[in-house]
Amino acid sequence: MNASSYIHGDSFYHRFDVRPKLISTLLFAAIAFAMRSWAGLAAAFLLPLALLFVAVGTREAWRCLLRLLPLFAILVLFTPLQERGGTPLFEAGGFVIATEEGIWTVARIISRLGALSWALMLLLLTARNEEIIRGLRAFHMPYNAALAASMVLRFIPHLGLLFSEIRDSMSLRLDEGRRGYPMLPSITALTVAAIRMIPETAAALEERGFGRMAKMPNEPIPRPRGYSLQWLLGAIIPLSLLIVR
Amino acid sequence: MLDADLSFSYGDGRSVFNGFRFAVGEGEKLLVVAPPGSGKTTLAKILTGALPGYSGGELKGHAYASGIDVLSMPAAMRMEIIGRVSQNTDEMLLFSSVREEIDFPLMNLGLEREERRRRIDRALELFGLERYSSVSTSELSGGEKRRLMLAIIFAVDPRICILDESFDELSPSWRRRLAGIIREHEGTVIAFASHELAEHAGAFDRMVGIGDDGFVPYSPQSLPEVHLRPARADGPCLAAEDLIIERIHRSSGDLRDFSLSVPHLEARGGECCILLGENGSGKSTLSRVLCGLLQEKGGMVSLDGRSLSSKDRRRTVAYLMQNPYEELFLPTVEDEMRSTGASAEAIREALSIFHLDAGEYVQEMSYGRAKLLQAAIFHLLRRPFAIFDEMDSALPYDDFILAASAYLGSGAGLIVITHDERIPSILPGRLMRIEGGRLHEC
């Protein structure tokens, strides 16, 4: 499981200490669930996305956005069809296509999913794995839990990488005249690979001595210049969303 | 030093070892040469605790190292006594940077920060990875990953090092260097290989094979001879002109981005071209461009003078990746072969050519046999050109030549990427080399 999302850079967010970054991520994720207005949903979606563009540049941020667009499209297409109770907005031949409540539901899901994804990507693209573990440990999380959390955070990007490898490989086998990728075999292959990865990763960790030490020493992180200001910004930026809640 | 008598069968009842006995002396350097599927990786995994572990299976017997039965110890507690470099590097890399990858086992040994830093720096220097210290492991080439795995084990410095096909994917200069490191290493080294390499000479005290109930004396393999038909003058011609290929290291700012220039490359149907170059020189990246998985920055890839799009390239050039598991996804050999759309007769023929069993489960195949399956799949697809990316690693020469002959015999043009200096003598072909970021004919 060697996918790393980290992108080298010198943006202001790269220079942030990992501790305020972790808190900022948590706040973005939590506040996204507290939004009650259209403006709030839009702000919760757009603010971390804007930060992502600033932190890692247009190309990388656009790549992140593209990965989630198909999922958003599916949500937009199907959620209103399932949420058909309430005030009808669009009708065709007496059939209610979308209601106000359905549109609100899909907007809320997309806003929350987007905010959560951008906030996590912001963290993973600008902080190395070891920094995240040290940051979590600074908040008194046990080493094993911090390691597990950092691996879980990388598991989804790793599955993304695995899926693109599978698609590449499948594309080399396509016959003349066939278009697209065989979706079902690709997803099956991904599932098998993901399941197989669990015992492999566990065995690899144990062979490297994971679990030998009853308690791993906690190495303190030195405070960078402007540490207090970073804390302040790390909290104020996501909390500012509450103004448009 | 290591005295073992063990029996092991997988969870499905398949027995691999039954009363397998062997002994390795203190500080001895042992080379075990045996074909794929003979149990080399299984033995390595048993000794380090990866098997039965989370995969299941029944293990009986003992393996005493300096009087301690390592089989009775939890895997994590064995690392000071015995450690291994896995054949499949991807399954062992867990962290996001080279330094972190080496640091993790050292932290688990309970070493102080200064001692860890000293060992990491020494291991990075020993395996020429200093400039990759902060690079993500996913951005390393196959050979660089192998060097990282070696750096980890020599940083941990267990009393017994097991190197599972660790010479594979290393360039000749790194193979010689590894042979020197093994020779000078004070601890015990057990190396597994599918075939004897020129670089093995002088590095080991003893060479053995694997028998039914223990190691057996090694009998050297004679190099197979291949009689190639000359390339047809009217065969299809794959060409690349003025290719510029770039790869960006996203994870590190202090590493120059990789760049490769290919002024001219030409391969004809039925012809064999051998591509050489150091680890990380761009052989696999060039292959990915030729088969349409990566986009070049400049230049053109053509077939008989007609420019090929990425999509066209995928249907023209078969790319057999370094790690076969990257291209195998379906449950059985038969499922994989049927996914090519080939007829039942063609599948039967391929099974026979590549000595495969239709009902075999892909996940249970050894690395070497997985490579044969990979070769069989692309053989069925009948692409006019194929690239073997270090196909010879983890395969005996006979199997490698078998695969190469099958492709060349069907009229396909073959580009063979290899680090084995014997390959050009047993598989005659045009030699090309990547040096200093440029491809040229030798």
What does this structure look like?
The complex is a heterodimer of chains A (245) and B (442). Chain A has 245 residues and is mainly alpha-helical. Chain A has one domain (12-244). Chain A contains eight helices and two strands, in the order H-H-H-E-E-H-H-H-H-H. Chain A has helices at 12-15, 18-32, 38-82, 100-126, 129-138, 143-171, 183-207, 227-239, and strands at 88-92, 95-99. Chain A has a two-stranded antiparallel sheet. In chain A, helix 2 (18-32) packs parallel to helix 8 and helix 6 runs antiparallel to helix 7 (183-207). Chain A is globular. With 442 residues, chain B is α/β, with parallel strands linked by helices. Chain B has two domains: 2-217, P-loop containing nucleotide triphosphate hydrolases (Rossmann fold, 3-Layer(aba) Sandwich), CATH 3.40.50; 237-441, Rossmann fold (3-Layer(aba) Sandwich), CATH 3.40.50. Chain B has helices spanning 40-48, 98-108, 113-126, 142-156, 172-184, 283-290, 310-314, 333-338, 344-353, 367-381, 397-409, 423-426, and strands spanning 2-9, 15-24, 29-33, 58-65, 68-69, 82-85, 160-164, 188-193, 206-210, 215-217, 237-247, 258-268, 272-277, 298-303, 306-307, 317-320, 385-389, 413-417, 430-435, 438-441. In chain B, strand 7 (160-164), helix 5 (172-184) and strand 8 form a beta-alpha-beta unit. In chain B, helix 2 packs across helix 3 (113-126) and helix 9 (344-353) runs antiparallel to helix 10. The radius of gyration of chain B is 22 Å and the shape is globular. The termini of chain B are far apart. Chains A and B meet through helix 6 and helix 7 of A and helix 2 and helix 10 of B.
Topology (elements, then pairings):
The complex is a heterodimer of chains A (245) and B (442).
Chain A (H helix, E strand, L loop, with lengths): L11 H4 L2 H15 L5 H45 L5 E5 L2 E5 H27 L2 H10 L4 H29 L11 H25 L19 H13 L6
Antiparallel strand pairs in A: 1-2
Helix pairs in contact in A: 2-4, 2-8, 3-4, 5-6, 6-7
Chain B lengths: L1 E8 L5 E10 L4 E5 L6 H9 L9 E8 L2 E2 L12 E4 L12 H11 L4 H14 L15 H15 L3 E5 L7 H13 L3 E6 L12 E5 L4 E3 L19 E11 L10 E11 L3 E6 L5 H8 L7 E6 L2 E2 L2 H5 L2 E4 L12 H6 L5 H10 L13 H15 L3 E5 L7 H13 L3 E5 L5 H4 L3 E6 L2 E4 L1
Parallel strand pairs in B: 3-8, 3-9, 6-7, 7-8, 13-18, 13-19, 16-17, 17-18
Antiparallel strand pairs in B: 1-2, 1-4, 4-5, 9-10, 11-12, 11-14, 14-15, 19-20
